[in-house]
Write a structure and sequence with these properties.
Helix content: over 70%
Oligomer: single chain
Order of helices and strands: HHHHHHHHH
Low-confidence stretches: 168-189
Radius of gyration: 19 Å
Number of strands: 0
Structural class: mainly alpha
Largest sheet: none
Number of domains: 1
Mean pLDDT: 76
Shape: globular
Amino acid sequence: MGINVATVFSEFGGKQGLYVQALEKYEAQKVPLFIGALERPGANLQTVLQVLRDFARFAESGTGAGCLITNSAIEFAPDPHRSQDALTRYLERLQSAYARALSASLTTSTPSTHELQAVQHQSRSLAACTIGLFVMIRAKVAPEIVLDAAEGTISTLLSALRAASAVEGTTAGHHRPIAPGITAATSAT
């Protein structure tokens, strides 16, 4: 790159520092392109569904090299300290964004413990699925397979949310949908 080694050390403390700065810049500038919709006010279940379906679009574009944080975690798997902090922050950010969006879709102002547990469980699952979808894009898996994986994730999510709602409805003595329009959302898949 034509950069003096002394400059790298004075600015970043070495190659590791440069790498950490690159990951932090990626988190600040690029991650919002993939999941920004989840982090905006008003994000809800429909936002989650759209974000998952967008992965197929990324795969179809042929230009998606995947996610730098995910790629780094894979590349440095034998030495996880190099990318572990960024990956941990990223997973927490994903889980938090999914949880906020799913929580916004709850129909009651005081959700039950079961509903909150379902949201947390699904948020963790969605964070892991997001990483998996990025790995598939990086590996240049056929777009239709990425779409199938995203749609399978959506189907599992909606089934889990319906089950949480049904359990809550059974315990409360009446059926209460967990999210507005969940019937319409499920019939579309």
